[in-house]
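Standup notes, protein team

Yesterday: finished cleaning the Pleurotus ostreatus set.
Today: Endoplasmic reticulum transmembrane protein structure.
Blockers: none.

Input for Endoplasmic reticulum transmembrane protein:
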Amino acid sequence: MTIYYSLTFMLLAAEMGTFCILVAPLPYRIKKTLFTFLSESVIVAKVAYALKISFIFVAILFIDALQRMFRITADTEASKNAQNGGVHDVRTETGLAARKFYAQRNVYLTGFCLFLSLVLTRTFYIILDLIHTQEEYAKIKKQSESTSNGAESTAELKKKIAALEAKDRDFETLKKQASQQAAEFDRLATEYNTLKGQNSDKKQD
């Protein structure tokens, strides 16, 4: 395997490891910290930019490997047609089969590397959107809880105000009754004093 296909294989292995980390059932806090770091880190952004450039080269290798595979497949078919009715050359067939195998291996290697890069990108943004959605849900839940607590406190205040108003009405009623009783007492006292004065005048006569 040439050096660029070896590097492609290492990149594919790194993608597989990264994918396993992304889909691992991590706790929410760890996952949030990890994805926040990956989405906001300047170093990660630079690494992602370098990987995008490397994937361009992988795409070129994929196209080249695909062309080689088609060409070797055509050479194999031509060799088989040329050897029909004649003596089969085992070395030639073995060489063509090996070349076809390597060409197919390179196609699968580069193709899976490109495909997994797309899967990784989409998976990362899906999980990041999920984390943001969970954060928004938590905020909305807290707001609803605070609103419900405010509604409960408002209801309690209304009850207290109603109780105070009822007490105030009772106090006004008692005040009116007391004033009425005082007026009645004054009237009776006046009448009593009047009657008593009249009796005193009669006794003096």
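Follow-up from PR in the comments: The chain has one domain: 3-153.
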